[in-house]
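Why show two proteins at once? Because comparison is the fastest way to build intuition. When a single record is shown, students tend to memorize it. When two are placed side by side, the eye starts asking what differs. So, the first record is below.
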Amino acid sequence: MIEESMKYNDLALLQDPPMPKQEKIPPLVIDTYHTHWTEILRWELDAIVSEKEEIIIWRIAVKVVSWKDAEFVFPVPGIRENHPYLEIGDLVHFREVLKNEKRGSNSAVEGRVTALRKREGLVRE
């Protein structure tokens, strides 16, 4: 019985995380404050970019607003709920898929988001 309680004691959820004894984390003081939070912000922004790169939306109809100004409007499912989270200035890639031939065409278009109409679920490029 004593041996079992010792095993479960090692697996307690509220234990401190194991820290290597050689490394000591420097205290957060005025000199290290900026570096500390800058690095955390960099990690967060990298994660946001990675998430946005993985957004793929299939079978949407793109409406041409103006050929002259190269403006398009397209629906994005979930934009009202902020998933996927898009912002003005985000880069968008369009590629035509030929349904009958079951392959993509060799042309692609790249643009920037210029407006978001979340109530309507539309993005303007």
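Second record. Ask yourself what differs from the first in the token line.
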Amino acid sequence: MSEGPAPSRTTSIILVDDDQLLTDALTVVLHSEPDLRVVDVAGTCAAALASLSRTCPDVLLLDVSLPDGDGLSLVPELNRLCPGTYILVLTSFSEQETLMRAIETGVNGFVSKVRPLSEVISAIRRAARSRSRGEA
């Protein structure tokens, strides 16, 4: 489905998005990749913080708009809880203001919800490679 596995170990992933259809589909697709594993799914800011207090994943896919707040407002706390986690914003927003604010909060990268799944998987693998080189 996408470029071959980059890391020699399994990349752990937490999905933070309130769209259950999307998170269910991503979970199924990511679990079919031998080097990727979804370790948790959270649909709210509160659930994301609780999840990260239990597990610091290699990659966190974070939606900007969550029912109990702005996903970007979580980034400083996420970085404090799990400083080595690569935060990849998964968004349908493309406004310059949103992207600039995301960069200012300290996210590591972006992937659009309107791109093919293969591009999402490639973005996760690039994030894992960057993290393993200490670039996160």
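One difference worth noting in the second protein: The chain is about 40% helix and 25% strand.
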